[in-house]
Amino acid sequence: MGPGLLLLFIVGDILGTGIYALTGQVAGEVGGAAWLPFVVAFVVALITACSYLELVTKYPQAAGAALYAHKAFGKHFVTFLVCFAVMCSGITSASAASRAFAANLVAGFGLDVGNGVILLIALGFMLLVLLVNLRGVGESIKVNVVLTAVEMSGLLLVILISLFFISGGDADFSRVVAFETSGDKSVFLAVSTATSLAFFAMVGFEDSVNMAEETKDPVRIFPRMMFTGLGIAGLFYVLVSVCAVAVVPVGRLAESETPLVTVVQTAAPNFPIADLLPFISMFAVANSALINMLMASRLIYGMSRQGVLPRALAKLHPTRRTPWAASLCTAVLAFALITFVSLNPDSQVVALLGGTTSLLLLAVFVIVNVSVLVLRKDTADVRHFRAGRVLPVIGAIVCLYLVLPWSSGRPAGQYQIAGVLLGLGVLLWAVTWFLLREVPAHPAVEEDEIPSR
Question: Where is the chain membrane-spanning (predicted)?
Answer without folding.
Answer: 5-23, 35-56, 77-97, 117-134, 146-166, 186-205, 226-250, 279-301, 322-343, 349-375, 387-404, 416-436
